Amino acid sequence: MASWAAGLLLVPLVAAAQQKVPAAKKLYCWNQDGQRICADALPPEAVTAEREEISVASGLRTGQVQRALTPEERAAQAEEEARRRTEAAAEETRRRTDQAMLTSFQNEDELRRVFAERVTLVENSIKTARYNITSLREGLVTLLRTAGEHELGGRKVPDKLAGDIRERHAQLLYNQALQRSFERQRAALDVEIEQTLQRYRALKSGQAPDAGATAAAPAGGVPPRQ
């Protein structure tokens, strides 16, 4: 009994000792203005920066956090996702059309409805690209005006401002190329719809479709993001 009671008395002592064990400390290391900085706490300006986490006890890296995306990068990411959805929808439509041309559609109107989603996706992508181009152009004009005021005033254009101008210009060129690509896709889609309808009509009539009617329409490549 005495041994059992002594064990009970040790339980709260062990628990208290465990509570006093300090949490593992770590250092945060990031680059700022070309210099590597390490600290045991992140200042507000470094919260969104890419950084490494290092254990104080072992000196080993325990983690890495990527920097937060800029609004422009998030917009480009969304644009890329829209492109992938458009291409996936195109592939799915072609697969469905080839496998179930006759059994799935009673008439041409039903067949046209299959393409409606693709048409909407491409047209929405064109509208988004046009909106982005307008916004980027207006922002670029503002930046160039600010740079011009610096030069007219005999002052050096700040490096950050010059960098923003280059980045905004690159984004503008990319979105212009993206718009042209979507417009090519839209024109190619009209050709594909007509070719599919011709094939459908030929199959319904029991005739072999013409080679020209079954040829794949060019989809118009999307430029890679620089």
From TrEMBL:
Entry superkingdom: Bacteria
Swiss-Prot/TrEMBL keywords: Signal
Keyword hit for Signal: yes
Signal sequence, renumbered to the chain: 1-17
Renumbered residue ranges of the record's region Disordered: 70-97, 204-226
Biased composition (Low complexity): 206-226
Name the record gives this protein: DUF4124 domain-containing protein
Source organism of the structure: Pseudoxanthomonas taiwanensis
Species classification: Bacteria, Pseudomonadati, Pseudomonadota, Gammaproteobacteria, Lysobacterales
